[in-house]
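note to self: dont lose this again. the chain is below, predicted strucutre after it. 206 aa total, dont forget to put it in the shared folder this time
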Amino acid sequence: MAKLSVELNRYFFEEERGEKVTLSEILTLAGERIFGFLLLILSLPSALPIPAPGYSIPFGILIFLLAIQLIGGATTPWLPKKMMNGAMNVETARKFVKMGLPWLKRIEAITKPRLSIICTSLGGRIVIGIAIALMAISMMIPIPGTNTAPAMGIFVTAFGLQEDDGFITLGGLTICLLAGIVSTSIILAAIWGGSSIIDLIKQQIN
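---
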């Protein structure tokens, strides 16, 4: 199959599209790479260094559902029909794809099948699924700083998964680990800060 960057460029910039595009329509590009492809597409908006308001939570939910299926050993992903038919403005999608293509091409340049057992074995896919599920939960938390890094971890991990490149997948899992540490620190800081503010208010009232 053609490289993902080539497929995305053709689909969004070389062919005529309507005003809206659905997830099910984009999946026609996936072929046998559907699990990794879905995770890539869903994590891309939040992985880019630009605001993606309104996408982190719903896409995080979809990613979480896919991760649970990976953990369960599924080979064909399932998503609710309503979500598959959910539409995005084509111009918005093009903006995300245009920004993501240079990064995608850089990863494609160093990707090749190696350490494939990490991506194909049940144990490897369970570990990948757990990591992605935890990052998806972080994406759904409405606190600044808990979305982009986890989405980047998912993106890189998913790219390795769809190309059977265990080396890239390990790199993605490392990003997931670091992102998890950062997100946990941010959440704990937010909780501690909130508690401090409440204590201060109580002191002022008393």
